Amino acid sequence: MGWAADWIEQTKLWARGAEGGKADEQQRPLAQRLDATLRRGQEALSPRELRRLLQDMQQVADASLSDVEGGRYAQLLMDWYAKADAPAHKDFWLLAIEQFGPDAKALQAARERYDKAESDVERSEAEMALRRALISSRTRLLQRFAQPQGGMGFLVDMRAELLALPKAEQRYVALDAELEHLFSNWFDVALLELRRLSWDSPASLIEKLIQYEAVHDIRSWADLKNRLDSDRRCYGFFHPRMPNVPLIFVEVALLDKMAGSMAPLLDETAAAADLSKANTAIFYSISNTQTGLKGVSFGDSLIKHVVETLTQEFPKLKQFATLSPIPGLRNWISKNGEALLAGLDDKQKAALEKAAGGVDVAHLLAALEAPDSLNEKSPVRQAAMFCAARYLGRETAKGRPLDAVARFHLGNGARVERLNWAADLSAKGLKQSMGLMVNYLYDLKRLDKHRSLLAQGKIAVSSEIESLCKG
Questions:
Q1: Which domains, from first to last, does the chain contain?
Q2: pLDDT tens for residues 188-216?
Q3: N or C: which end of the chain has fewer CB within 10 A?
């Protein structure tokens, strides 16, 4: 019944919106402003402007109008919103929360009825009553904005604004919660289209790849052309209401072995790989493009769809893996490395002290400033590999991997396969992980097994990573 607890918890957010949030110190409560005559202090809209905006929003949400007609009024409000400043946007949000929310008393009564239900029949009836109590004109208001062209993007961008607010601004949380709930249905994977992006795609679409690439910055058009060459594939998920914006995209290299470094993949002068020999697909960059869709997960489905598409085109592909960054590694070592280094045996400590000048995190990180200069037997390199293996293969919080990228891939059923030394010598790669990268392997026959292990708080790792974890 975990879903029920989560659902009940979300109703609290909607109820909070119906009850109204705590007003900013610089503003009167919204109800007072709507009844007033003059603007006061730092209020964005005058009472007259606020009342006019409320009337316009009520027109959009009018249940007597068709969705098409309501959508036309929504377009006019979208035009107003585009010209309005940030404080005026906040007034719009407050009106949506406080004037269009569910009936707080009815919602509270329905929740109490659900909590008190003692039988399955009572619980089912109480659930239906609770669902009805949650229906509000705010839902209809937001749905109407999705009607006109560009409306879905408008709502996604609006939520991105909400998510960018300081955490202290809690008064808008109900609107954020309702948008996330709507998006989870509107952006269901069954409604998305997988499309290949190539050099022949429209220029406006290709430019989106440069704009949204979040893992390895695209430096030039030549760099982009290399990533779309014959031995590469790029796929994205698209929504029919946002047809020119990939919601998430993945870049793939087709090779004859598992990649261990970014340099060959990003080498614009390198010849394309021989596709007749390709047996491995390397996912080397996955980028979400819409901040406003935070909490809506479709990355795992993207990988599954891409694997199916690739195997149809290239039946010889047998291995599917990533070449991934380890964004949290340096920071984790800085905070937790002392305890790990203290666990080394006397011989390892002596070797590390001689090579780095000390058996502590400060000396270790200082000795890792030029990782490409360290050979495989270097005590500094061995200590760093030990720390990295422990970070990825052992450390969890509430049963989940610490590293954000690891959480994504391991949650999809991959395993930690191999650590790659000096694999990303860019400024970003050195800053995040001292140049280290990791391969996550998608063994298609063991995805469910790996997910089951993770549910038990255990991380699936290869024998090589297991060996490194032991130091």
A1: 27-101+136-187 (1.20.140.90), 189-324 (3.40.630.180), 329-469 (3.40.630.150)
A2: 999 999 999 999 999 999 999 999 999 99
A3: N
